[in-house]
Structure formats: C-alpha cells, structure tokens
Please model this.
Amino acid sequence: MHIELSKDKRYHSIGEVAKAFDVNASLIRFWDNEFDILKPKKNAKGNRMFTPEDITNLQLIYHLVKERGFTLEGAKTHLKEGQKKTLDKFEIIRKLETIRTQLTNIKNEL
Model:
C-alpha cells in the first residue's frame, strides 16, 4: 500500500487521510479512539488534523489490522510489546515493496 499525501503539509485532515488509505473517515476516527499511539491535533472546530508521525502510525495500524489480519486487541498488544521493533520491520517491508515496484517497472521497460 502506497499512501499519497503531500510531504509539504504539516497536518492532514481526516478526509485526506481516509482518501489516502481508501477507507471511511469513521474507521480513522475509530482507530484514533482505540490506539494510544495516534495523537492528532484538533483545530478550533474539533476536527482532527494528522501529523506525518500520525500517518506513519496509521500505516502501521493498517498493516497490522488490514494486511496481516490482527484483531484490534492483538494489534494493540503487538504495538505495546515491541513498537520500535515493529516499526523498524514495517519500514523495511515498505522499502522492499518500493524497490520491488521499481524493479518490476524496469523489467517491463526492457
């Protein structure tokens, strides 16, 4: 999964985040309430504004729940027991997926 969000912005609205993840905003709100690692800022209207760190954590939650099939409780436990180790593995997987895509594109151009 490749998330397309502007790297120039400090904050992203819940609508932008939901669209990038191809999920409903209600799921993002639900995960925000369930996972302590998510700490979006709220503007004067109370709307959630997600930082790049929140986006990375959402990618990790998405990976655990949607791609690896963890239950919410399982994902919470996994994150609490080894958040740094899990994040490192997640980043390695994402980098390898990017390299794989690039290599496939090169192969197709040959």
